[in-house]
Amino acid sequence: MSHTDRIIVLVDMDCFYCQVEENLNPQFKGKPLAVVQYNTWRGGGIIAVNYPARDRGVTRHMRGDEAKRKCPEIELVHVPSVRDKADLTKYRDAGKLVAAVLQTFTPLLQRASVDEAYLDITDAVTERTNMATREIQRSEIKNTHVVGCEPLEFLYSLYSSGLCEDANLKLAYGAVIAEEIRAAVLQQTGYTCSAGIAHNKILAKLAAGLNKPNQQTVLPQSGVESLFQNLPLHKIRSLGGKFGHSLTEDLGITTMAELVKFSEKDLKKRYDEKTAIWLYNIARGIDLEPVTIRLVSKSIGCCKTFPGRSALITPQSVLHWIGELGAELVERLEKDLEENNRKARQVTVGFTHDVNGNDISTSRVHPLNSYNAKKITDDSYAIIKKLCLKADGTFCIKSISFNAGKFEDCRNVTAITSFFKSDGPYKTIRKMEASERVEILNTDIDEENYSNETVDLNEDATKLTFYKDNCENASDDSITDEIPTVEERSTKGSFFLQYFEDMKNCQHEPPVLRDFDTSRNLEDDDLLDTPGTSKDEDVPTELCEECHQSIPISEMMSHKDHHLALQIDKEEKLTRKSNVPTITIKAKENTKSKKRKCSDNRPNCTLTKFLQSTVKLQEENTQECPQCNRRIRKSDFDDHLDYHVAKELHMEINDIKLCSAANVPKTIKKSKTTKTVSKTRSVISFFKPS
DNA sequence: CATTTACAGACC
DNA sequence: GGTCTGTAA
User: Fold this and answer.
1) Does at least one atom of strand B sit less than 7 Å from the CB of A365?
2) Cα A11 from chain centroid?
3) How sure is the predictor about A549, in pLDDT bands with cuts at 50, 70 and 90?
């Protein structure tokens, strides 16, 4: 593993907000333009400047008035104001559009901001390298610069000497792909961008800024030394602020070249281990930080400042502004819910206020159970009132911020089942709404952790064999009769996929929270029976360690399955899967995972039941279900009706899950659940052999 | 009185 | 969980 193994691209949109405005109003193109927010004070603050305006000396940071003075013909476009506040929606949306294009090149995409993203294109580059039949042409990297040499020289060097430099060849293919990426972005969105191509994120970012706009720059490892010779420290990402400044102070240096002179030991004297190593490496152009897949932000927030005399004094003004902020937040959260299938569970309300002439910042969190602007506003006002309402009934608030976070996946589980291998790990299969994938949750009993695999049934047929093997090894001999053979699977495509297709078409219903008796075991807290007592004295029972209920011994295994399934469901150990193309295997800690003993007299492999439920019902002795109009075996009919109840119940559970933030009184969950349970009888019998 | 806003992460 | 800091556009 070498630090030159990866090929990283940083795509940076050129003066993005200006481009968005130019595309909306093409008459602006080619003319000086700046985007400003607020026009009340000196023509508003400039947040983006296009290149013609930059040529005239206009910069960010300036007020609109100042820009007009420098460049009288400049167009000043105002950020739309919604609720008396800058509304950046159209730029965020434009950014998403760009990200969607970038995503078609690699799943290893990390959005760094609204207009920047890192891509790890190592795999694509490797493929190109292996498939290559001829040398890379200059025409393939028309808009490319190379740090340290002319692009033609760079290409020539790749092929001239006998020893073909693998790292540089890969960078060259990286440049080819980056040109394609940028062409695709332009073609599909109308926006130009610049790009940096290097072996790591820091260098890619640095390179992208070297030639703009609408160009790209390769920074080979061999170009680092000369580039760093006179490179100010603050040009390196994360050294632009206080830390960079302290480096200058502490070490008496201003350029990267000077940083190289410090040994690891020197640096460790002054900084903690992590920082010292990072500095040591970065001085040599080495950075091992991975591109972490992230397409959506971890939090969504908005804020508003009230500088100087605009500070909020009256309760009315405070209420007004938290109302506006709350409305904006809810609007954005609802859009996020649509787009990303997730719900924020927490809001942080923060503010700065004046206490004896000092600015004091404070924040408090409160739970978020529904996207209700009024609720958020009321809760926030209660907090603010409590913390900074002065004795005379006034406030002195300089800024307010709302931030929503603690996102939870909120897709419904549409199917869940679990099974054992005779001496292997516990497995649960879960199918999520709006996904062609099933998850396999492997609970490794011995190590108390489980891995979470996501399998795309469209692409990976071998996983089905894997299921089958597990079942064949299990004690139940009948299993293999119930599972399609490999040949059958190949003619039908994916067996599971077919199953879920059928499910969609209502050929058969998913086994929902299978194999447990909801009348007794749905929620541990719902149980009304005294521990240790049994409903049916004739049946030998055992005390469940989980819920302290007496469970018939014959049902104990499935009862425990149920606890685990519920637990897994509750624990929300979902990783975001929608963007993972094929298979991800992710080791996870699961300290709460309960140990369960392995024994040889396992109950029938539950997977069999899962699969059995997919067998087409063509028998004569069937009856049509009034609820789903499907033909059901007469012998299964009662249980089938139970199934419908279970499905309802399942919906409720999913609903409850959505509302299960910490502050929801448990009694509510309980009563809601209990109500359904009371209607319910045995669900498991549907999946039991007749 | 004036950059404002957005977001992440570290520390306790 | 609360607060503060850092970063960057």
Assistant:
1) no
2) 20
3) low
User: Same domain, yes or no, for A333 and A418?
Assistant: no
Residues A111 and A133 in one domain: yes
Give me the CA A274–C1' B10 separation in Å, rounded. Answer: 13
Residue A309 has phi, psi (to 5 degrees) of -70, -15
Please tell me the total number of residues recorded for chain A in this structure. Answer: 690
Last residue of a domain, one of A354, A376, A409: A409
pLDDT single digits (tens) A54-108: 999 999 888 989 999 999 999 999 988 888 888 898 999 999 999 999 999 999 9
* CA proximity to A545, closest of A530, A528, A559: A559
A350 CA vs C4 C1’ separation (Å) = 12
Spacing of A365 CA from C2 C1' in Å = 9
- Domain end: A378, A409, A440, which one? A409
Tens-place pLDDT, residues A400-455: 999 999 888 877 666 665 554 444 445 555 666 655 555 555 443 333 333 344 44
**A134-149 tens-digit pLDDT:** 999 999 999 999 999 9
Query: Is residue A70 located within the same domain as residue A85?
Result: yes
Query: Strand C-proximal residues, CB under 7 Å?
Result: A 16, 47, 113, 115-116, 237-244, 346, 348, 360-365, 406, 662
Cβ A607 vs Cβ A481: under 8 Å: no
Q: Are A543 and A550 in contact (CB under 8 A)?
A: yes
Structural domain span for residue A388: 300-409
What is the tally of structural domains in chain A? 3
A318 within 8 A of A312, measured Cβ to Cβ = yes
Which residues of A are identified as catalytic? 116
